[in-house]
Amino acid sequence: MTEEKRAVGRPPRIEKRQIVDVARRIIQAEGVGALSMRRVAKEVGATPMALYHHVRDKDELLMLTLSGMAETFERPPLPEHPRDRVLATAVHMHAILSEVDWVVDVLSLGDLTDKGALWMPEEIIDSAIACGLSPEAAIHAYRTIWYVVHGALVFRRADARRAADPARKPFFPALITPDDAGELPRLSALAGRWEEVTGDYDVAAQLAAVVDGLLGPTRAQQG
């Protein structure tokens, strides 16, 4: 009888993997802002204190949600020329994050990452140095590329949210009127085609232009 009571009163056993899975699900469904140790504890049926036996704090939990994500994607074969390697790696970075776009919310916090993904900044920086950039300039080049990739993904998610709410009317470019033609001639002329043109946005092509700007013109372009 005593053993029965002890078994009934024993708190549920939780595993770190279970905690991480719940945290990922919350972020995917509701964003990073919805994640808290208390919320995860409630969903796994434990007390917040029990979670701290497995995870130090929210930052560590966020790191764990990222851990191993990069390894689920095969590394692409990279071209021989370092300039081409920079571009291929940047395009790959955008492609894999497009498939797990919830990760972007976590990466947006600034200093959290998946160690398995660090081969990408390593490759971009190393290849940029091989193209003639100083180590400092190569770091700046990597950050510029990351800002483009991150920005494209943020706007992609925003576009998806707007598409899910067809009743919502966009403010831009609808707010441009014929009266704006004098001050905003280009925007006024393009407003009617804005959605069509932006819909054709090619991230790979734009990343190629960014790489050209960062590394300078190719020999063919110098001509």
Automatic annotation (TrEMBL):
GO terms for molecular function: DNA-binding transcription factor activity; transcription cis-regulatory region binding. Keywords: DNA-binding, Transcription, Transcription regulation. Residues 13-73 form the HTH tetR-type domain. Pfam families: TetR_N. Residues 36-55 bind DNA. InterPro entries: Homeodomain-like_sf (IPR009057), HTH-type_TetR-like_transc_reg (IPR050109), HTH_TetR (IPR001647), Tet_transcr_reg_TetR-rel_C_sf (IPR036271). This is TetR/AcrR family transcriptional regulator. It comes from Streptomyces asoensis. The lineage of its organism: Bacteria, Bacillati, Actinomycetota, Actinomycetes, Kitasatosporales.
